[in-house]
């Protein structure tokens, strides 16, 4: 049976629709069958995922105003594991039509019953008001998530919302719970943001979720491209935040799984090629050293390995004893080695006078503490989209 979550805040433009789309996308990305329900006549959720809802004859309006219409006939399959119950401007008049109906607050709840078994999560995007559509969403839901734009009047809006929440719980839906508050459009550099978050923590202890969504222009781009931010830029901070929110939701319902490993900044392939772990505390680079291979006759490796041009730095040898075939050089310190130097390095080995036992440095390897790894991240391969949506 699907868990039904309403994304609600009567204040406009706080990130409800963005949260609904991206939470839905994150749950779907993790393989959970999710239905997104658009309860806003603006239809932002539908449009944001590329469904031209204004052209549709059947929308959520129809199931609210005619209980004979099955919900399953109105849903649209928009992504893998993700369906959408669209809305358009027709919904704007639904409220007036609902007022006269018996049990008007329960209509959505009853309509969703027929599809609850088909999904694991149903996420409802509420309109920016505390009208009958929102009340229907709160009555249909078993929990709410409150996106909170971190700004001066945030607390006031929260008080009103909590008041409505309590009333819905008392009169209509005693099981309604609060998953938590998600700060949106956060700028960690703004001290004001931190103060407001502290106030929220104080006024609503335990309600602030352990995730926040930073302010980013990408969130305005995503709906223009009719994609979630997870699809637009899977490695973006915002995508990570919404994945984390999805994990918190799973955790809330006791369906938590170990988080996916964070996507590496560099493509995995390149990282494997460049780095082996030996010894454990130190990353080992196989240094591409075409110049070194040309050194002939073989020379003693002990003392200093120098990288030219002159701007390059000296690397001290840790172990003056070379590996038996001379292919391995241990280095412990790197002063600073710029990516430029690495790319243009004309590697050559300076023999120390009086040394014997010549060996040939076929593939010198340089051990560099991870914090000093100087290599630039390689370019991301084209079409690298691990989200699979
Ligand atoms: N983290 C963010 N950083 C920057 N912009 C954001 C962020 N989240 C959302 N936005 C942008 O803010 C605007 C409002 O967001 P959104 O539509 O999700 O809010 P809403 O609460 O659903 O609004 P409404 O109340 O009108 O339905 C949109 O243009 C959206 O792209
Ligand atoms: Mg909205």
List keywords for this structure.
single chain; 389 residues; alpha/beta; Rossmann fold; 2 domains; 7-stranded mixed β-sheet; 4-stranded antiparallel β-sheet; 31% helix; globular; binds adenosine-5'-triphosphate; binds magnesium ion
Characterization of this structure:
- With 389 residues, this protein is an alpha/beta fold.
- It folds into two domains: 3-252, P-loop containing nucleotide triphosphate hydrolases (Rossmann fold, 3-Layer(aba) Sandwich); 270-370, no CATH class.
- The protein has 14 helices and 14 strands.
- The protein has helices at residues 16-29, 44-48, 60-65, 94-99, 107-113, 132-140, 154-171, 191-203, 218-224, 229-232, 237-252, 268-274, 290-293, 339-344; strands spanning 3-7, 34-38, 76-79, 82-85, 121-125, 143-149, 177-184, 275-277, 283-286, 304-308, 314-317, 331-334, 346-350, 365-368.
- Helix 5 crosses helix 6.
- The chain is globular.
- The model is unreliable at 268-389 (pLDDT under 50).
- Adenosine-5'-triphosphate binds at residues 12-18, 40, 44, 128, 184-185, 213, 215-216, 219-220, 223.
Query: Roughly how much helix do the residues carry, as a percent range?
Result: 25-40%
Total number of helices: 14
Oligomer: single chain
Average pLDDT taken over every residue: 75
Structural class: alpha/beta
Largest sheet: 7 strands, mixed
Poorly predicted residue ranges? 268-389
What's the CATH topology label of the largest domain?
Rossmann fold
CATH top level assignment of the largest domain: Alpha Beta
Hetero compounds: adenosine-5'-triphosphate, magnesium ion
Spatial separation of the terminal alpha carbons: 23 Å
Order of helices and strands: EHEHHEEHHEHEHEHHHHHEEHEEEHEE
Strand order of the largest sheet: 3-4-2-5-1-6-7
